[in-house]
Specification:
Helix content is about 30%, strand content about 15%. It has a nine-stranded mixed sheet. Helix 2 crosses helix 3 and helix 3 crosses helix 4. The chain contains seven helices and nine strands; from the N terminus they run ββαααβαβαβαβββαβ. It is α/β, with parallel strands linked by helices and about 240 residues long.
Length: about 240
């Protein structure tokens, strides 16, 4: 027996219903989210957010909403342990759950959305394609939407022209050059503000990213403004924008 399997308990469902998230619950499309413990909160200490800045780690939404409860955090750590222990089994289960929900949506001809990085920053679409030839850009059913926030500019650029995968690049206290590159390419930027959102930031229109979780799909070439939540309210790194 592989002793590493003792590091996590079997997971019945990797995907959580969007109704469990206060913002995603406002979506007008049925949404599913994958939550893992972020950064290196797994027994191997492997980072699941390799481009995270110090401010991002300190202000992570992992501590916001339901994430402040110990049972929720334990569940997310368990899923992260599952991923770092047996990645292929994890991906196989994830793909099974995705396909199951897509099939349900297709039967009723309804839209469906997936956010695979609720509290992580992993290129799941690359991994699913690599291991199981699952390419979301080639799906026959065209009412499926995948979306994520990312700190990886390379990934945001890679998927920029995908018809059903939208990546929003997240601003931190230390990636201004990458933010400027993303802005020139028309990629949406997520920025966290301490107080009320400005109408414009860096010359771009600011839309309320907290209104619902699908603003990044509806709007292009904008700043998705987010208000500081959880530990972000106490940020001192510069991750949260205070002067604007």
């Amino acid at each position: 027996m592989n002793t590493e399997t003792k590091q996590y308990k079997p997971v019945k469902n990797l995907l959580s219903k969007g109704s469990t998230n206060s913002k995603t619950a406002k979506n007008d499309i049925k949404t599913f989210i994958l939550y893992l413990a972020p950064h290196n909160l797994n027994y191997k200490g492997i980072t699941l957010c390799k481009d995270a800045s110090d401010g991002c780690i300190a202000s992570c939404l992992y501590s916001a909403g339901r994430g402040k409860f110990s049972n929720v955090q334990s569940s997310r750590i368990n899923k992260a342990n599952y991923f770092v222990t047996d990645k292929k089994a994890f991906l196989k289960q994830l793909l099974f759950e995705i396909r199951k929900e897509i099939e349900k949506a297709a039967k009723t001809d309804t839209k469906i959305a997936f956010r695979l990085n609720g509290t992580s920053d992993i290129d799941f679409l690359y991994l699913l394609d690599k291991h199981f030839d699952f390419n979301v850009d080639l799906l026959a059913y065209d009412k499926v939407y995948f979306y994520d926030y990312t700190k990886s500019l390379a990934r945001a650029i890679r998927y920029k022209n995908y018809r059903n995968y939208t990546l929003t690049f997240s601003k931190s206290e230390s990636n201004l050059n990458e933010v400027n590159q993303a802005l020139k390419l028309g990629i949406n930027i997520a920025a966290v503000f301490k107080n009320d959102l400005p109408k414009k930031y860096k010359g771009k229109k600011v839309v309320d990213g907290d209104l619902n979780d699908l603003q990044m799909i509806e709007f292009k070439n904008v700043i998705l403004g987010l208000k500081a939540k959880g530990d972000a309210k106490k940020d001192t790194t510069g991750f949260v924008i205070t002067n604007y």
